[in-house]
Design goal:
Layout: H1 2-23, E1 31-36, E2 42-47, H2 48-59, H3 61-71, H4 82-107, H5 114-130, H6 147-151, H7 153-177, H8 182-213
Antiparallel strand pairs: 1-2
Length: 214
């Protein structure tokens, strides 16, 4: 029963920006600001109708992530990292929900620094997920899925053992970057996230080539 209630809550949370935008439809401008540069200047727009459609589609992502678990050929492994999987699903839901509501708030006239909000929530997500990443077992949907990690379980294990701490460090730096100003904040954020994402990929290749030489 608790699992069912949690699923209902996650779905309601994930579609809440779309529902909110629909209820506030007449108060929202016909052309909605949806993309922002580092100075929080609008550089991308769409109609309010299209935004609502997009928010509804994004609201389905938590369900899609859950379904992906059951179509994965290695789905039996998910039982060994079910907590990490659920934490990531909740994290993605919260991230998308926050961004959706911030877009609505901005278009209603609130002063919201979208870049800093994005840096903060993405950094927080990375920092939290890094704590669980070392638990992730081989699968085709979740984790560092390179040809080299999928080819060898030991490479998968070592890659994720490195990726976890890197994600936590990158996440913390990203959160800090959200309190910096101007282009410095964006540069620090990008370096932190790219490093945390790319280094494990190169590391998995290095491990693979080392094993092949042996």
């Amino acid at each position: 029963m608790m699992k069912v209630m949690r699923e209902i809550f996650l779905i309601l949370l994930s579609v809440s920006p779309a529902v909110g935008a629909l209820l506030l439809y007449n108060q929202l401008p016909e052309t909605m600001a949806t993309h922002f540069d580092i100075n929080n200047e609008v550089n991308g727009t769409m109609s309010r109708g299209m935004l609502i459609v997009m928010l509804f589609l994004l609201g389905l992502i938590p369900v899609i992530i859950r379904v992906s678990r059951f179509v994965d050929p290695k789905r039996a492994n998910y039982e060994q990292f079910s907590k990490a999987f659920e934490v990531s699903r909740v994290g993605v839901t919260i991230l998308l929900t926050v961004v959706g509501w911030m877009i609505i708030a901005y278009n209603l006239g609130s002063h919201v620094d979208m870049a800093k909000v994005a840096m903060f929530v993405v950094g927080l997500f990375f920092a939290i997920m890094g704590n669980y990443f070392t638990q992730v077992k081989p699968n085709y949907m979740f984790g560092i899925r390179t040809p080299w990690t999928l080819a060898n379980e030991e490479i998968w294990r070592k890659t994720h053992r490195l990726a976890g701490p890197l994600m936590m460090i990158g996440g913390v730096i990203s959160v800090i970057s959200s309190f910096l100003s101007g282009s410095i904040a964006v540069i620090v954020f990008i370096i932190a996230i790219v490093a945390a994402s790319i280094i494990p990929v190169f590391y998995s290749y290095m491990l693979y080539t080392r094993n092949r030489v042996k």
